[in-house]
Amino acid sequence: RWKKASREVPGQPGLLQKYTEEFNATQENCPAKLLSRHDSLLTLWEEYQYGSRERKAARYFTPEEQTIDYSNLYKQRNVLWQCMKQLGGRPDVVMDRISRFLSSTHESSSTTSKSVDDIIHAMNQDDVLRQNVCQ
């Protein structure tokens, strides 16, 4: 019974496709503007993946929109977004991998005391950290 109900009618878009198209059309009308700060990696991921009613999801930014911000905020955050994307959109996995890397290198400060900005900066500056977290 469920299989029959979930089948799509040929030539007609399924509900998921319909809602995705509506969402994408809504995103086109939102301004390409990034948040100034994030409380967690989850909110950073949500900014990339979903945006908000007032802001376009960063993954939909055009190349021109990616460079609007004078401080290269998109470029810096994109390093972490691509890492999270590679890990299935799991900010918790990224935090766990950063914690394990820091403990294996005997770095004294924990990731829980680091701000999202600190983590973004570290991921942009430290190739070894980035490689170990994103693999």
What does this structure look like?
By secondary structure, the protein is mostly helical. Helix content is 58%, strand content 0%. The protein is globular and about 50 Å long. Residues 1-7 have low confidence and may be disordered.
Layout: helices, strands, pairs:
Elements: H1 2-6, H2 15-28, H3 41-49, H4 63-66, H5 73-86, H6 91-104, H7 116-125, H8 127-134
Helix pairs in contact: 5-7, 6-8
Strand portion, in percent? Answer: under 5%
Largest sheet: none
Count of beta strands: 0
Shape: globular
- The percent of residues in helical segments reads 55-70%
In angstroms, what separates the terminal alpha carbons? Answer: 42 Å
Number of helices: 8
Radius of gyration: 18 Å
Q: Low-confidence segments, ≥5 residues, pLDDT <50?
A: 1-7
Order of helices and strands: HHHHHHHH
Structural class: mainly alpha
List keywords for this structure.
8 helices, mainly alpha, 135 residues
Write a brief structural summary.
This protein is an all-alpha fold. The chain is 58% helix and 0% strand.
